[in-house]
Structure formats: structure tokens, C-alpha cells
């Protein structure tokens, strides 16, 4: 019975780490999308 409770801090740490990883990936994708948008607008404007 104590074994599941002993693993609880590890599981909590993994959950927090996963959230940070997904959040960072979301920011990276957002930045990439902004760069693509800026480049396409420049291409359409003829720069």
C-alpha cells in the first residue's frame, strides 16, 4: 500500500515536466508561425 504513495512525488514531477514541455513546444510553434507569416507578407509585398 505504501508503494503507490511513494511514487506520487515522481508522478507529480513528471506531470509538471510534461506541461512545461508542451507549453514550450506551443511557444516554438507559435514563433515559427509568426516568422512564416512575416515572410509571406514580405513576399506578397514584393520586398
Structure description:
- The protein is mostly helical and 47 residues long.
- Helices cover 94% and strands 0% of the residues.
- The longest helix is centred in the middle third of the chain and has 44 residues.
- It is built from one helix and no strands.
Low-confidence stretches: none
Count the beta strands: 0
Oligomer: single chain
Q: Enumerate how many helices there are, as a single number.
A: 1
Shape: rod-shaped
- What is the rounded distance between the termini? 67 Å
- Helix/strand-derived category reads mainly alpha
**Beta-strand share of residues:** under 5%
Radius of gyration: 21 Å
Average pLDDT rating: 86
* Strand/helix succession: H
Helix content: over 70%
Largest sheet: none
Amino acid at each position: 500500500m505504501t508503494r503507490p504513495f511513494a511514487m506520487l512525488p515522481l508522478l507529480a514531477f513528471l506531470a509538471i515536466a510534461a506541461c512545461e514541455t508542451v507549453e514550450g513546444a506551443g511557444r516554438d510553434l507559435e514563433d515559427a508561425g509568426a516568422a512564416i507569416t512575416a515572410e509571406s507578407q514580405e513576399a506578397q509585398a514584393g520586398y
